[in-house]
Amino acid sequence: MPWQSVTLPATADEAERLSDALMDVGALSVSIEDAAAGTDYEAPIFGEPGMPVDALWRDNFVVALFEQNADVHHILSLAAEHAVFNLPSYVIGLVAEQDWVRLTQSEFDPIQISTRLWIIPSWHDAPDSKAINLKLDPGLAFGTGSHPTTRLCLQWLDQNIQGHESVLDYGCGSGILAIASIKFGASSATGVDIDPQAVITALDNATNNDVTIAFYTTENDHSSPADIVIANILTNPLLALAPLLAERCKSHGRIVLSGILASQADKVIAVYSSWFDIAVWQIDEGWVCLAGEKIL
C-alpha cells in the first residue's frame, strides 16, 4: 500500500506548531527539514558547540506522511486551523510500498576506496580478501564510503597515516573514519558526534571491525588533543567549530576538513588559516577536501 507525502513551507514560528497539529489530526509521521539544505544558505546544525541554539531553521519544510486514502486537504485544513496557520501551497507525492530492506541492500555494493581499502556491507563477500576490508552497513548515521566527502577523507588517511598517530574524528557519524584510521596503523582514535544514535552506530561498527575506539556525544565529550583531527561535516558547522577543532589539534598536528563545496573552500581556508597552513588537498565531484598543519 502506498502512502501520501505532503510537503509544506513554514517559518520557524510555524513549523513546530504545525507539526504537532498534523500529528493530532491523523498524520502517520511528521518531520521538519531545513528549506535551504544543500545551498550556501544552509544553517548550522542547531546545538553545535560554539553556535547559538535556535529552535529551528528560519525557513523550513514540514513533511507529513498519510495513509493512501486519507483526505489530505481536509486534514491539512484542520491542522492549519488548530495551529493558527494560513495554509500555503503544498506538494503531494506518493511513497510506494516496497521491501525496504532488499531495496536498501541492492543499493550498496562493496566500494573500493583505494588499492588496499574496501567498504563491505555485511551481506556481501569481500572481493579482495588481502585488502583492508571495513565491514559497514548503512544505518542511521552518515558515512558509508559512497559519498565523495567520505571517500576523500578515507583516501587522505590511507596516504598519510604513517603509524602510531592519535586521531580525532569530529562529527564521526558511522565511525568509518576513526575505524579506518586504526586499520591504517593509528595508535588510537576517538570519535565525537552531536547525535547519540550516531555514537551507538559507531560503537557497533567498531565492534564489528574488531577495533576499540572511544566515541562520545558533544554533550559528554572527553576527547583529548590529537595528532590528526578530521571533520567531515558541512561548511557552516565547520566555520563555527574552527576554534574548537584548532584547540583539539596538537602543536604541528594535522587537520583534514571535508563536506565543503568547491565554491566554499576559500571561505573555510580563510577562517582556518588563523591556526593552520591549510589548502585544498583534492576535489571529487565538486566536493573539496582541505588539509593542513597547525602552525601554533
UniProtKB/TrEMBL annotation:
Recorded GO CC terms: cytosol; ribosome
- Gene3D superfamilies registered for this protein in UniProt: Vaccinia Virus protein VP39
Which EC class is the enzyme in?
Answer: transferase
The reaction(s) annotated as catalysed by this protein in its Swiss-Prot or TrEMBL entry are: L-lysyl-[protein] + 3 S-adenosyl-L-methionine = N(6),N(6),N(6)-trimethyl-L-lysyl-[protein] + 3 S-adenosyl-L-homocysteine + 3 H(+)
What InterPro entries is this protein classified in?
A: Ribosomal_L11_MeTrfase_PrmA, Ribosomal_PrmA_MeTrfase, SAM-dependent_MTases_sf
Enzyme Commission no: 2.1.1.-
Q: Which domain of life is it from?
A: Bacteria
Q: Name one GO biological process term.
A: methylation
Where, subcellularly, is it found?
Cytoplasm
Keywords on record: Cytoplasm, Methyltransferase, Ribonucleoprotein, Ribosomal protein, S-adenosyl-L-methionine, Transferase
Q: Which GO terms describe its molecular function?
A: protein-lysine N-methyltransferase activity
- Chief localization: cytoplasm
Where S-adenosyl-L-methionine is bound, by residue? 150, 171, 193, 232
Q: Name one Pfam family in it.
A: PrmA
* Xref: NCBIfam families: prmA
Known HAMAP family for this protein? Methyltr_PrmA (MF_00735)
Q: Which family does it belong to?
A: Belongs to the methyltransferase superfamily. PrmA family.
Task of the protein: Methylates ribosomal protein L11.
Q: What is this protein called?
A: Ribosomal protein L11 methyltransferase
- The organism encoding this protein is Sulfuriferula nivalis
